[in-house]
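User: Reviewer 2 asked us to show a designed sequence for the structure in our supplementary figure. I'm pasting the structure tokens here. Could you produce the per-position amino acids so we can include them in the response letter?
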């Protein structure tokens, strides 16, 4: 499916970017592996990894004493019980890397934002092979840092015992495993499954892209997102929305609002709506607790839908009146490929039930690693085998969008290991102790980092600060704080193209339909004009 990496010139450009990144990295790292004022005191690296992971404090072991972790991950200078009495309670974060470790992640974001804008690089950037070169180059710089300059071990989060590696090459292996095997593979297999299966559902009919019709489609997507996930809802509805607006002159604002609402803000009512909420469910938040977010969901999506209706109504007045003879599809309303609806529900069931290392609800069966992903791939094969080729052709289905997302997120997942690691160590030092702070801090980071680990960091942080509202006893977090973290992670994923997985896929599908989408910063101009003011209103109403 990948376009061949062609042309010596393109290879040189990609290699040049890599060398620039590497030289900047060496220059910044020459002062030493880490800033010790920033990093935690390291755990003794010479001990066996299994002992290091479960080391506890004693009076005659001052280094371990400094590193003793409570159940919330705080470093406390207090004696603890013998390790063997509470082996499951011992928890140690890896040593935080220097802040300069975030540089490759910043460079990758700048590349995504700037390379399509320059006339010298815009055509080169159109190729997915070029995106892969940039993505892997930045990821390689991160791995080089962990191998040569970091100087500490990294915990393997792909294993149940979470063994910490030795410094150097073993640390590189664990960074790669954590980024790719633990995070990237489940992420991209889920997106791929939803993308391919939803591509076999064709919604036909006489849809006319009027402001009222478009607003109704977005409202349906806002509801659907919480029940089939934001990615599932986006992939089902984006093509009907594009077809309905095929004769409109101004379309890109409709796709932007589609990303705001269907890909993000609609998915907060159930844990299956968005990955952060599902992680909360796995951590003990009751499954239906998120229904308490209905007022917040209604306010945010109400503001966005009203804003869109007014915006689209003004835009439509500057267009030619609709001519029924130009309608793209005059067929009666029908849904074809309905078998894929059941396959979509099966994918959602996989996400909800097949969590590796944890028994399936109501049974003693524990799914092995990657059983969930294997079942999803099997469901994709069923979809391809059971859906007629004509349905996918009617949807103009191809793999370009999912390939673009997959090559970019390879680098994103590797490069974001450093900022996530820094957050894990220093998240509690940021003075976040009120619901509005939780909302904006979780949201700001979720706009650029994966919102799932960001949610976990602030979820754990909320356990260690005094609650300003009644506690949700199941998890020991204040209700207002939990609501703020949940909504910040879900809603603010709409602020950038990389804030949530389906954002980039919808953009790519729109561009394959010849809709000129805003640039990275152009899209942020929309979100800052619409989503940020709506978030301010949400804060004033619920989180003061």
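Assistant: Here is a per-position design you can include in the supplement:
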């Amino acid at each position: 499916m990948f376009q061949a990496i062609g042309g010596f010139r393109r290879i040189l450009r990609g290699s040049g970017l890599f060398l620039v990144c590497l030289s900047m990295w060496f220059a910044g790292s020459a002062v030493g592996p880490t800033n010790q004022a920033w990093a935690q005191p390291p755990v003794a690296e010479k001990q066996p990894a299994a002992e290091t992971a479960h080391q506890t404090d004693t009076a005659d072991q001052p280094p371990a004493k400094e590193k003793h972790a409570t159940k919330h991950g705080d470093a406390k200078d207090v004696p603890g019980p013998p390790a063997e009495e509470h082996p499951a309670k011992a928890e140690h974060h890896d040593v935080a890397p220097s802040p300069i470790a975030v540089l490759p992640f910043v460079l990758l974001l700048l590349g995504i934002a700037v390379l399509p804008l320059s006339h010298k690089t815009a055509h080169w950037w159109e190729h997915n092979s070029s995106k892969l070169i940039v993505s892997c180059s930045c990821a390689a710089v991160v791995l080089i840092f962990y191998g040569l300059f970091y100087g500490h071990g990294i915990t393997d989060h792909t294993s149940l015992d979470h063994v910490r590696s030795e410094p150097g090459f073993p640390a590189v292996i664990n960074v790669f495993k954590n980024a790719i095997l633990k995070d990237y593979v489940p992420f991209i297999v889920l997106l791929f499954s939803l993308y391919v299966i939803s591509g076999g559902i064709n919604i036909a009919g006489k849809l006319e892209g009027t402001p009222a019709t478009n607003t109704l489609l977005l409202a349906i997507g806002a509801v659907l997102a919480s029940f089939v996930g934001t990615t599932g809802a986006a992939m089902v509805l984006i093509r009907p929305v594009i077809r309905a607006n095929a004769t409109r002159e101004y379309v890109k604002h409709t796709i932007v609002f589609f990303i705001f609402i269907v890909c993000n803000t609609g998915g907060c009512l159930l844990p299956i709506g968005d990955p952060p909420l599902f992680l909360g469910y796995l951590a003990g938040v009751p499954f239906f607790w998120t229904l308490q977010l209905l007022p917040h969901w209604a306010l945010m999506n109400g503001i966005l839908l009203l804003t869109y209706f007014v915006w689209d109504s003004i835009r439509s007045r500057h267009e030619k009146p609709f001519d029924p003879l130009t309608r793209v599809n005059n067929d009666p309303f029908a849904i074809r490929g309905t078998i894929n609806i059941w396959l979509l529900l099966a994918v959602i069931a996989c996400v909800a039930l097949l969590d590796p290392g944890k028994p399936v609800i109501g049974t003693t069966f524990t799914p092995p690693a990657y059983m969930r992903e294997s079942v999803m791939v099997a469901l994709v094969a069923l979809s391809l085998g059971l859906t007629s080729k004509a349905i996918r052709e009617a949807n103009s289905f191809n793999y370009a969008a999912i390939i673009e997302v997959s090559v970019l997120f390879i680098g994103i997942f590797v490069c974001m290991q450093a900022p996530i690691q820094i957050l894990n160590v220093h998240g509690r030092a940021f003075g976040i102790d009120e619901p509005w702070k939780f909302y904006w801090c979780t949201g700001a980071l979720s706009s650029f980092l994966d919102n799932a680990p960001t949610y976990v960091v602030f979820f754990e942080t909320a356990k260690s600060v005094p609650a300003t509202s009644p506690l949700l006893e199941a998890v020991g977090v204040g209700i207002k704080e939990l609501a703020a973290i949940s909504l910040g992670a879900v809603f603010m994923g709409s602020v950038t193209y990389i804030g949530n997985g389906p954002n980039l896929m919808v953009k790519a599908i729109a561009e394959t339909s010849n809709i000129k989408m805003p640039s990275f910063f152009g899209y942020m101009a929309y979100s800052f004009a619409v989503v940020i003011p709506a978030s301010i209103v949400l804060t004033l109403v619920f989180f003061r």
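For the response letter, you might also mention the following. The beta strands are 202-204, 334-336, 471-472, 477-478. Residues 169-198 form the longest helix (30 residues).
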